[in-house]
Every structure is written in structure tokens, then in C-alpha cells.
Amino acid sequence: MDKQWSLKELYESFENQKFLNDIQCIQTTLNSMKDIPDSDINEENLKQYLETENELDDLVGKVYAFISLTMNANTQDQNAIKYASVIENMLASFAATSSKIQKWLGKFDLNTIKDPYILEHMYFLQETQKNNTHLLDDESEEVLAKMKTTGSSAWLKYKDQLISSMKVNIDDKSYPLTEVLNMAYDKDVNVRKKAYEAEVNSYGPVEQGVASSLNAIKGEAITVASLRGYDSVLARTLEDSRMSQKTLDVLLKTMQKALPLFERFCLLKAEALGYQNGLPWYDLYAPLGKSDKEYPYEEGCQYVIKQFSTFSTHLGEFAKKAIENEWLDVYPREGKVGGAFCHNLHCIGESRFLLNYGNQFSDVVTMAHELGHGFHGECLNNEYAINSDYPMPIAETASTFCETIVKKAALKEVDDQEKLNILETELTDCAQVIVDIYSRFLFESRFIEQRKNGPLSVDEIKELMIQAQKEAYGNGLDHNYLHPYMWTWKPHYYEADYAFYNFPYAFGLLLAKGLYGLYQKQGPSFAETYEKFLSLTGKNDLVDVGKSVGIDLEDEAFWQNSIDMIKEDIDLFERLLKK
Fold first, then answer.
1. What pLDDT is stored for residue 289 in this prediction?
2. What is the pLDDT of residues 184-217, one digit of tens each?
3. What is the helix (H) or strand (E) element at residue 311, kind and residue range?
């Protein structure tokens, strides 16, 4: 039953000599790079630095991936915990040198560069020079990096340990949180309700620790953004995301205008389930229709491969390769983190995928989502390591595009009852990515604003969460059954250097819808355009990436077209309900 990923392609174990040698190699390389800031300003030295940086990025990526993937599969693994600190401290001690290197790179006149290898890295060099305005003095950079290891990084590990070790008691039986979260998709309303109530009641022993983690991490984010001269934490996120303020403004405006559309969907679903006051939280994912169809993992795998292959042979073969070569960690278990993610391994040209699979169509969709992330990595494998690092918003595009492939294809080959189930899954996911993400943006914005005045209490945090849910969902949810603890186990709030990891999901969904619209117009030839699009995402601003396929990301009309595609699905959903 327990299908776990294979990590031997990285290292056999923490005692493996190659693992230990690579850690030493990282340290040696970091030491050698301390001489770079004293190098002459010439193309030969610049090229040598870029070659070393590419090699180092892949090596650090390999070591860090082995550590973090081991820890995500088992948060109590002491070797992983130990070596995570080793790597963090090693990189933290390099912060002063890194700052000097950035300033050294700022001295080059990039307009005079002729070397083809250097020209391949031009975007990275231009971005580095632009970011130099936010650098502190070398000593301060080193202090910040070292403090992070006992600050936000330590708080993140503490939060993960608290959440992963939680036990939820239902009818005198104890369950890991990940398993209880999957019960939200159960066919039995009593199971869903009991799971929701037991989950909400289970946070008491950990709520103060998790709140302290959130306060500490956001406090650090506020301090660092101010020290670096950003106008706000959000301003830093936008710059790091290679995203213009105008793009975010039109995206949020489009999302806000779409809220009544999703309120209508929630009310339609609530009525179908027999509710008068909107959906209770525990029935957000309640399946509709009379279908008893389940998707055991093996069947789900074949389904994804089949549908991916309708788009392109390359995409289908990629999914098959990932599944057959044990790149997926499939089922929930104690000690394993919740949710799902993909970790692309540019260092070996592979990916690893964490799932918490539960045999529902939604689990098939999640698998497609994560494999989409992996295919994004596949399209960047021929790029240099430096040019394979894409920003947050574009990160959710390939994944959502692959979701759309699976859902749209499935709708063409099923009867009305199954079609209703698939549409409900699709629209529930869209509601999550538009409405719930909007609520998370409101919550995080307000939390950060209030955090400037000092730490927030558990009750204050819960109230912010509830208020954000009411504003986003409107009357679509029953206000007697909301979720005050949605800030606890969602990992996106707890990375100090990646605040506001919420709007990228909406960006990804709506951009993916737009790309799918192009696919519908262009047919099979679009697959090549799509792969080219993904290959550019590590070395361009988002606006320029969009232009590569004729999309203007600062035009509200583009985003509204994607919302209109979702409206068509809601109209079909309503017609099917009335049959």
C-alpha cells in the first residue's frame, strides 16, 4: 500500500560517502569563491564565476533536496534535521561574500559583453545589478543570514513538527492530520462533519506554538524588507516575482469582480446538498451526484498518462517516466507533511512529488497538478541552473494547465452524473484558487499590517482569518461553519523570504486558462509553443514571458477572458443540476 519515492538517485543515505564528499565540496567551492570579489573586471573572470555558480547551484540543490525530501517524508528524521542546520549555517556564513560578489557583478558594463556563454546569463546579470540597490553592507548581510538560521528557519521547522505530530481524535480513534484533511472529500456527510469538528477542536494544544511561529516569521519579513529599503513586504515579493504592480492590480481587480460568480456557485452547491444558508465549511469539497466511482492510485496514474498524451507525446511520456521510476510519495502516513508538492531536481534532470492520495477524482487532479510542475522542470533541464530559477507566480501555471487538460478531457467521455462530479471538482478548485486565495491575500495583508505594532494573539489571528473568509465567500458559505485555523497548516505563510505565496495560484490558474484557450485555437502545434514558453520562464520578466505567446498580462481583458471560461462551466453546472 505504502508507495514512497526513491531518493537513491540523489544519495543512498546520510552516511553515504558521496553525500559527505558533496557537503565538503560545497564548503570548498564557497571558500574558493571568496577570491572572486578581488578579481579584475573582465569577461574571463565573469565567465569563470558563472560556470562556478552554475555548478554550485546544482550541487547545493542536490544536497538540499535529499535533506528536505527526507524531512518532508518523515519530519522526525534526526539526520535530516541535523544536516539541514549544517547546510543553512554553511550558506549563512557565505552571505558576506555573496554580497561582495553581487557588488562586483554590479561593476560590469553589460553593454560591452560579447562572450556567448555570458550573454546566455544576461537576464540574471541585469537582475543582479538591479537588486544591488537592496543590499546591505557585507557585515550586515552575514549577520542577517546567520540570524535567520535561529530565527525564521528554526520557527518553520518548529511549526512543521507541531503540525505533523498532531493527532485528531474521531470516535475514540486517533488519526494523523493529513488523513483527516482527506476526509473532507468523503461521500458521507457525517464523516465530513465529524472530521471538520474534530480537526478544528484538535488545534488547541499547538495553536500557541504555531501562532508564535507565524508572528516570528512575519516579524522577520517586515524587518528585513524595511532594512533592504523596500516600501513593504509585498513590494519585495513583487520584485522577487518579476511581476509588475500593475499586473497584480489588474489580477486582484479581476478576482474581486468574480467573487459574486463564485458565491453563486457555492449557493447552487449548497442548495443541491439541502442547505439554506450557504455551504458549511465541511461541505466545501462534498461530492455531488450519484457516482460511486473511485480512482485507486494505479488507475489514477493511467488516467493521467492517457489524458496528458492527448496534449503531447512528450507530456504523456514524462508522466509515465515519473510514475514508473518511483518519483512519487503517494499515501498519507504519520510523520509525513500534509498537502502536495513537486520538487524539481535540475541537478539530475528529474523531479520528486509528494501526494497524500485518497482515491478520489480530486486526488487524480492533484497528481496532474504536481506532474505539471515537474514538466515545467523538464522543459528547463537544458537551461543552465541559473536560468532555471523561475519566480513564484509562473510556478503555478504549468501545474494548472495540466489540471485543465485532465478535467476538460474527462468531461468529454462521461455521462451527465460523472460530468457533474468532474465539473464540481473543477469549480471547487477554481473557487479555492480565486476565492480562498483572495481571502488568504486579505488575511496575510492585514496580519502583516497589524504585526508591525507587535505580535498578534491566537484569537486575533483567528478573527482575521474568519473576517477574510466572510469577505471573500460572501453568503456562499454558512457563517456558522467557517474555519478559524486555516493559517496553521498551510505552509505558504511560513517562509520569511516568500511572503504572499497566495496570489501566484490565481495568476497561475487564470494564465493557464488563457494558455488553454490558445491551445484550443491552435491545436496540436501549440505543444511546441507551450514548451518554449516554459523554457523562457527562468530568464525573463513575467510581462515578457507573456509577450512570447502574445499575451498582455497588464491588460484586464486577458484575465477577464479566463474568468469567462469559468463562468461557462458554472452555467453548465447549473444546467446539469436542473436536469
1. 66
2. 988 899 999 999 999 999 999 999 999 999 999 9
3. helix 297-311
- The gap between the terminal CA atoms of the chain, to the nearest Å, is 40
Is residue 269 classed as helix, strand or coil in its secondary structure? helix
DSSP-based three-state secondary structure for 350:
strand
Measure CA 195 to chain center.
25
Q: How many CB atoms lie within 10 A of CB 35?
A: 10
Amino acid at 494: Y
By DSSP bridging, strand 341-345 and strand 328-329 are unpaired
Alpha-carbon distance 304 to 302, whole Å?
5
Helices 437-451 and 245-272 sit at what angle, rounded to 10 degrees?
120
Q: Tell me the pLDDT tens digit for each residue of 512-534.
A: 999 998 999 999 999 999 999 99
| Residue where the block lists cell 574571463 | 44
Cβ neighbours for 193, distance < 8 A, ≥ 6 positions apart: 280, 282
Paired sense of beta strands 350-354 and 328-329, if any: parallel
C-alpha span between 321 and 35 (Å, rounded): 42
Distance CA 394, CA 15 (A): 37
Question: Looking up cell 457516482, which residue turns up?
Answer: 291
> What grid cell was written down for 29?
567551492
**Element (DSSP H or E) covering residue 455:** none
Distance CA 451, CA 223 (A): 11
What is the 3-state secondary structure of 18-46?
A: HHHHHHHHHHHHHHHHHHHHHCCCCHHHH
Phi-psi region of 135 (alpha: psi -120 to 50; beta: other; left: phi over 0): beta
Q: Which neighbouring-strand residues pair with 175?
A: 168
Cα 515 to Cα 177, 367, 387, 519, distances in angstroms: 36, 20, 22, 6
Residue 86, strand partner residues = none
d(CA 437, CA 504): 9
Helix (H) or strand (E) holding 344: strand 341-345
State the Cα–Cα distance between residues 505 and 443, nearest whole angstrom.
Answer: 16
- How buried is 376 (Cβ within 10 angstroms: 0-12 exposed, 13-18 middle, 19+ buried)? buried
Q: What would the grid cell of residue 337 be? A: 507533511
Q: What whole-number distance in Å separates Cα of residue 579 and Cα of residue 222?
A: 53
Q: Determine the Cα–Cα distance for residues 58 and 22; give it in Å rounded to an integer.
A: 11
Residues in the chain, overall count: 579
Q: With cut-offs at 50, 70 and 90, classify the pLDDT of residue 50.
A: very high
